[in-house]
Design brief:
CATH topology of the largest domain: Dihydrofolate Reductase, subunit A
Shape: globular
Number of strands: 18
Bound molecules: NADP nicotinamide-adenine-dinucleotide phosphate
Strand order of the largest sheet: 11-10-9-8-14-6-15-18-17
Length: 353
């Protein structure tokens, strides 16, 4: 099952409206096939794993991270192909929260004498499918945010661009690849001029679509994010109309979306609605402390990643986040889930809702 999760995590954030699933097939104690959901969500992992006609799957054990689908969607159910290929036993980690399939595969498979075992590594499944669960239960999108800080909790330094080491930064790139969209603010673009893509070799094509909150259309046409918009889809949320700038942005393929104001800022609920309607479900926020405070105060954050350097910035430090972390620790459901050593840095992952 761990190998199946390993497969699923390769496409996390890149399977559209479908969940990322991993599937492993074992026959006579030998691994005979493995697969993950295809990029953009179709075909499903089980279908791909069972697609090799040269393999005789009769009597095999199938491990899937999620309960196989049992309903007719755009394709026939995976339970049908599992039956057709004469699989003996199906192990899965989590029941599919999609109502069309929830607990139905078990019944369907058991009816044709295929044994099923559920809740294998359930805790891993609960974490891995947290966003999918929330989406199916509440129709809400999933928001992760990250801040990199010095040991004394500054998020910026007067003279130096980098806060954390190369291992932390590579991990951020991986997180970008695991989300379908990335959201930042014009203030962060003006200060840092980031590309916000995934630059890990072989994973560049998993870079998320980029969204910038830029109420007054202030980010320069020379910023990296604008200059690379013909390669990586880039959207600007704005309010103040400047036809000249809007024309220029459209010429370089930046899509612009006008959003109403609420309390002098762009109405964030309208931004969320836009993302959801366009099929973005996993949003990764890379912004400064003002925007993170807003998200935290209004309980928008689901998961939070703290990249924690061991360097003290002292009076070179800018934007202290002590209050932010104090507030986060006081949130009732806030739970520190994981701590990973990244050489001198640490990654602390919090689950907030
Ligand atoms: N270490 C890290 O992980 C990290 C990551 C990113 C950035 N940074 C640093 O953070 C600094 C920038 O931080 P910042 O705090 O100045 O800017 P920020 O948090 O990136 O952005 C603040 C902007 O968000 C917009 N916003 C939209 N809706 C909002 C709402 N409801 N409430 C509050 N703001 C809202 C506001 O723009 P409007 O006023 O136009 O509405 C506000 O000016 C830079 O120095 C950058 O280097 C660090």
């Amino acid at each position: 099952m761990k190998l199946a999760y390993n497969q699923a995590s390769k496409v996390l954030g890149n399977t559209g409206s479908n969940p990322a699933v991993g599937c492993v097939i074992v026959k006579n104690n030998e691994l005979v096939s493995l697969a993950h959901t295809n990029f953009n969500g179709r075909p499903h992992a089980e279908r791909i794993a069972l697609s090799n006609k040269k393999i005789n799957f009769k009597g095999s054990l199938l491990y899937s991270t999620l309960e196989p689908c049992s309903h007719y969607g755009k394709t026939s159910p995976c339970t049908d192909i599992i039956k057709k290929r004469s699989i003996k036993t199906v192990y899965f980690s989590k029941f599919d929260p999609d109502r069309r399939s929830f607990k139905k595969a078990k019944k369907k498979l058991n009816k044709c004498n295929i044994k099923t075992f559920e809740n294998i590594h359930k805790y891993i499944g609960d974490c891995f499918y947290k966003d999918f669960n929330i989406r199916k239960r509440t129709n809400n999108i999933f928001i992760s945010s990250k801040l990199a800080t010095s040991k004394d909790l500054f998020i910026s330094e007067k003279y130096n661009k980098w806060i954390t080491n190369v291992y932390s930064r590579a991990r951020v790139h991986l997180l970008r690849a695991n989300h379908d969209s990335i959201l930042t603010t014009s203030r962060t673009i003006l200060k840092d001029d980031p590309m916000l893509n995934c630059r890990i070799d072989g994973l560049q094509h998993y870079s998320p679509k980029r969204f910038v909150i830029d109420k007054d259309l202030t980010i320069p046409m020379t910023s990296k994010i604008i200059r690379t918009a013909d390669n990586i889809s880039t959207y600007l949320f704005y309010n103040s109309i400047d036809n000249n700038k809007l024309n220029k942005l459209s010429q370089v393929k930046v899509k612009t979306i006008r959003i109403d104001l609420k309390n002098k800022h762009l109405d964030f609920n309208k931004i969320i609605l836009f993302l959801r309607n366009k099929g973005f479900y996993r949003v990764f926020v890379e912004a400064g402390i003002k925007f993170n405070n807003f998200l935290l105060d209004n309980l928008y954050i689901n998961d939070f990643y703290h990249f924690y350097s061991d360097q003290l910035f002292g009076n070179r430090g800018l934007y202290n986040t002590k209050n932010f972390f104090n507030k986060m620790n006081k949130i009732k459901r806030s739970k520190r889930e994981i701590e990973i050593n990244l050489f001198q840095d640490k990654l602390l992952k919090y689950s907030l809702k």
